Amino acid sequence: MLSIDRLSKTYGTQGGASGDTALNNVTFQVPQGQVLGLIGPSGAGKSTLIRCINRLVEPSSGTIRLGETDLAAVRGRDLRRARRRIGMIFQEYALVERLTVMENVLSGRLGYVPFWCSFTRRFPGHDIENAYRLLDRVGLLDHADKRADALSGGQRQRVGIARALSQEPELLLVDEPTASLDPRTSRQIMRLISEICRERELPAIVNIHDVPLAQQFMHRIVGLRRGEMVFDGAPDDLDDAMLTEIYGAEDWTAMRQEHEDDTTAEQDTRLQLAGGAG
């Protein structure tokens, strides 16, 4: 379980003067298997929160506990070991495009193998077998030997998911995984992430800009505004008044209807394909 307590981050503090507050006393827990959606406008602190958890950004105060480890306090070798326990899925995929799909997935094991293995890209047999299983799970087994730059955006994101899982993480951090994808592929990716977290009882935090998509697939939603939590609850409890408080005025009904229309069209297509196959 991930437990965040009174986490704050202030940038640009100099000479005793207070700087810009990116996070202010953020507190919540993510139990095993729960997928938590993190929403809010640009500048609300979503990316800062994720970067504090994996320590790409140093918190100003507070604790971040993954199991018994305070991620905010570890240093040096202990920090490197702690990061191995956190799988990261990126908006822009962060793949090495000249490498194959299999090599990109195996790169998730670099923190576990000796230097010579990473330098020569020679991995233990059990890591390779596991990588094949993961590629099968994300639907890319037939693409194992393709270069990453030959894949579509949705396929690249699936490689990123498999790479993160190859770390055998205790926590998934997902940074806007659908920002570069079309609506149908976005739903497929979010469905895959949700299913995998349920299967592995893996907690996850998803920084997501698409509110209807978050309401469809997240188990729970945390809303941030100017670095402070203003909502923490079930997706169905996120009404128009709260969304307006988080983001400002918007036609939320029209946005939901567009999402529902896209979802219905996708379901009709899947039924037609299933009927044709039968």
TrEMBL record:
Keyword Transmembrane helix: no
Pfam families the record matches: ABC_tran (PF00005)
CDD domains named among the record's database cross-references: ABC_PhnC_transporter (cd03256)
Subcellular location: Cell inner membrane
Annotated region described as Disordered, given as residue ranges: 257-278
Record key words, sorted: ATP-binding, Cell membrane, Membrane, Nucleotide-binding, Translocase, Transport
SUPFAM superfamilies: P-loop containing nucleoside triphosphate hydrolases
The protein's name in its UniProt record: Phosphonate ABC transporter ATP-binding protein
